[in-house]
Write a structure and sequence with these properties.
Layout (H helix, E strand, L loop, with lengths): L4 E2 L17 E6 L4 H15 L3 E5 L3 E2 L5 H20 L3 E6 L7 H9 L8 E3 H9 L6 E5 L5 H10 L6 E6 L4 H5 L2 H17 L5 E4 L5 H7 L7 E2 L1 H13 L8
Parallel strand pairs: 2-3, 2-5, 5-6, 7-8, 7-9, 9-10
Antiparallel strand pairs: 1-4
Helix pairs in contact: 1-9, 2-3, 4-9, 7-8
Length: 249
């Protein structure tokens, strides 16, 4: 596993059900960086408001950069989601890693809940679905070359390979880039430009939760829509949480 293991950062402890507590939308960070959790939670609150609560998984790498790290994160995400559901105040769950680790398992868990189904959204799935809406051709720009195969497989699993123009990668080590916001932003901008100019993408997804701030800053630099994954997931959650007229939730 190329990610750096960290067993010293823990998720919030399970809370007992409080009938008077306000409902929350729980954002689960599948890596153990609490700084990343805070950043992604702040982005989510811009769309969904203060009800978003960020949770960091109990153990694992500080950055998910390869398939082993992604697989290892899944049970930790499920455990964090289970703790959130036990609290009795969880209104929805948001998995904040582009590979959506644990997403299917969490959905199965919420469907079996005695309190009824709770919406579960992954930022990767949400961003790709938004980019491909109305038949639009889309590309993905990201920093993690070892996850390229997993990303392509995820696009195929969503049935969108025919709209996918390809993946463009930044240059340099992902963890070094993440420590230099200016370099990260410029390197991602070049990858977005390649998606548009070389591949013909009509929308470009920024592939990574920890890339959230860079993704937000790039939206104003391109005429082609740049899809930031955390806001895309929040928009999807907002739709799921809004009752359809004539139905009950």
């Amino acid at each position: 596993m190329r990610g750096t293991a960290d067993r010293g950062v823990h998720a919030e402890p399970a809370a007992s059900a409080d009938p008077d507590a306000a409902p929350t939308i729980v954002l689960i960070n599948p890596n153990t960086s609490t700084d990343t959790t805070a950043m992604m939670t702040a982005i989510a609150r811009r769309t969904l408001g203060p009800s978003v609560r960020g949770v960091t998984v109990a153990r694992g790498p500080r950055m998910l950069t390869d398939p082993d790290a992604l697989r290892a994160a899944a049970p930790e995400v499920v455990a964090a989601g289970r703790r959130a559901l036990v609290s009795g105040t969880c209104r929805a769950l948001l998995v904040a890693a582009f590979g959506d680790p644990g997403l299917a398992e969490l959905r199965a868990l919420t469907l079996a809940s005695s309190r009824g189904p709770v919406p579960v959204v992954g930022i990767g799935e949400a961003a790709v679905l938004e980019a491909a809406a109305s038949g639009r051709q889309f590309g993905i720009a990201t920093t993690t070359p070892w996850l390229a195969g997993s990303i392509v497989e995820r696009v195929a699993a969503l049935g969108l390979s025919d709209r996918f123009t390809g993946l463009r990668l930044t240059e340099g080590d992902p963890q070094a880039l993440s420590a230099d916001p200016d370099a990260l932003r410029e390197s991602l901008a070049r990858a977005v430009q390649e998606c548009v100019v070389r591949d013909g993408a009509r929308a470009v997804v920024i592939g990574g939760g920890p890339l959230g701030e860079a993704a937000e800053s790039l939206r104003a630099r391109f005429e082609t829509p740049v899809i930031a994954p955390i806001p895309a997931a929040c928009r999807r959650l907002a739709r799921l949480l809004t009752p359809t007229p004539g139905t009950s939730r």
